[in-house]
Amino acid sequence: PGQSQEVQAENVTVLEGGTAEITCHLHRYDGSIVVIQNPARQTLFFNGTRALKDERFELAEFSRRRLRLRLARARLDDEGGYFCQLYADDTHHQIATLTVLVPPEEPQVEAAALAVEGGEVELTCLVPRARPLATLRWYRDRRELPGDSRHRQVGKVFWQSSVLRLRVERRDHGAIVTCEATHPALGRGQRRLTQYQLDVQYPPSARIHPSQSVLREGDTLVLTCATNGNPR
After folding, report:
1. Cα(13)–Cα(74) distance, rounded to whole angstroms?
2. The CATH classification of domain 108-204, taken from the options 1.10.150.120, 2.60.40.10, 3.30.465.10, 3.30.450.20
3. Can you say where in the cell this protein is located (predicted)?
4. What is the pTM of this model?
């Protein structure tokens, strides 16, 4: 009994649109029938011969030690358990689970309304498509700001947003706020960033120069009036 044939499968993770390799390891293989089936239990390859017309699947290796199934242009509906079945005296099978990740694009940042001095501005950072959920963070001058996150599932992917509310003064005009998305599909240390420049409207103020000076009769006095406002 200890010398019977066995098959072992490895779980695989792939990015949407990428290429996945599903490997079935064969132990003490003596040439028995080997079948690979997709999650719908349709046979993809029967002893090395293609059984399903899907050219994205290719048998990259079929040896006495292993079977390697290559899948190109992976889609979300390819996800699930792939069956490696060995038909000997005992039917033996193992399942390789394929997981498809969808990395986020650059986040979209929008303002709900004009920012006015003394008021509150509401910024929304949006990631319309990711799987699993991305992590969204707000930063200003390298300091993290608290956002209100929400999400919903649309089919197999997630739509998500984070809302940032800031009270603004005229000194905030031109400041840069950043929304950052991190995700398992992006790799260690990688992230997607979108910057937003605050446009704060404030009323004009006037300054007259010089504000005071001592003059003698006959001197020429030049006064400069400077105004500052947004919009100008």
Report:
1. 10
2. 2.60.40.10
3. Membrane
4. 0.78
What's the pLDDT tens digit per position in 44-89? 999 989 999 999 999 999 998 999 999 999 999 999 999 999 887 7
Question: CA 40 to CA 97: how far, in whole Å?
Answer: 13
pLDDT confidence of residue 211: 60
As a whole number of angstroms, the distance between CA 114 and CA 16 comes to 38
**One-letter amino acid for residue 70 of the chain:** R
Higher pLDDT, 226 or 162: 162
Tokens of 97: 């689970």
In the chain, which segments carry CATH 2.60.40.10?
6-101, 108-204
Are β-strands 176-182 and 157-167 bridged in parallel, bridged antiparallel, or unpaired? unpaired
CA distance readout (Å), 154 to 79, 81, 177, 202 = 16, 22, 28, 41
User: Is the domain 6-101 a CATH 3.40.47.10 member?
Assistant: no
- Residue 98, amino acid: L
